[in-house]
Amino acid sequence: DTEVTQTPKHLVMGMTNKKSLKCEQHMGHRAMYWYKQKAKKPPELMFVYSYEKLSINESVPSRFSPECPNSSLLNLHLHALQPEDSALYLCASSQAGTSGIGPDTQYFGPGTRLTVL
Amino acid sequence: RKEVEQDPGPFNVPEGATVAFNCTYSNSASQSFFWYRQDCRKEPKLLMSVYSSGNEDGRFTAQLNRASQYISLLIRDSKLSDSATYLCVGRGPYGGATNKLIFGTGTLLAVQP
């Protein structure tokens, strides 16, 4: 089973709201990722967690705050977003994390389509 | 120069055609490569990993040439259901991170009846 689940599927929020995106995997993967994807563009990496520790932050604005409560869960807390933050937010997971061994395939969840008004 | 480059297309081909996508990468230290497929408004799904020895999965054949830093994907006997964006993807090390994926811009394939 290579399933990554994400909730909610769609989210509309105002610029003053606080919301959270959730991601879950039960494949025993030790690396989890957040990506942002705008229309007709490839996914852009935002954050990487390896073994529940933040290992990569791609200079993402602080209005996006990731959290990894345990090895199966990844959250993205949103606060004071801008309309240009509207995008598809994808979560992914992979097995090996930072070991560099093997292809370490990443599997993506269905995404949360976020609209900021 | 982008780290992973591919022709954005679109490639418009008739059903049954053979179509080839090419991709080049600039970081010779890149460890692994993949082709992902992404349907409109859906998530990327792994199509296949790419190995230097070449690998085949049904109608799909992928090839990696490390000397030329070139990756290819061949689709034989195209089906309508093959219509999608095909993403060429490289995996680290990028900036020292071994599990960072770098995506090409994607190539749009439209198979016509």
Would you mind describing this structure in some detail?
The complex is a heterodimer of chains A (117) and B (113). Chain A has strands at 4-7, 10-13, 18-25, 31-37, 44-50, 53-57, 64-70, 73-79, 87-94, 107-108, 112-116. Chain A has 117 residues and is mainly beta. Chain A has no helices and 11 strands. The N and C termini of chain A lie far apart (37 Å). In chain A, a hairpin with a 2-residue loop joins strand 5 (44-50) and strand 6. In chain A, the strands form 2 sheets. In chain A, strands 2, 4, 5, 6, 9, 10 and 11 form a 7-stranded mixed beta sheet that branches. In chain A, strands 1-3-8-7 form a 4-stranded antiparallel beta sheet, with no helix packed on it. With 113 residues, chain B is mostly beta strands. Chain B contains no helices and 11 strands. In chain B, strands 2, 4, 5, 9, 10 and 11 form a 6-stranded mixed beta sheet that branches. A 5-stranded antiparallel beta sheet of chain B has the order 1-3-8-7-6, with no helix packed on it. In chain B, a hairpin with a 4-residue loop joins strand 7 (60-65) and strand 8 (70-75). Chain B is globular, with a radius of gyration of 14 Å. The termini of chain B are far apart. The mean pLDDT of chain B is 90. Chain A binds chain B through residues 31, 41-43, 45, 48, 50, 55-56, 88, 90, 94, 96-100, 102-111, 113, and chain B through 31-32, 34, 41-46, 49, 87, 91-93, 97-101, 103-106.
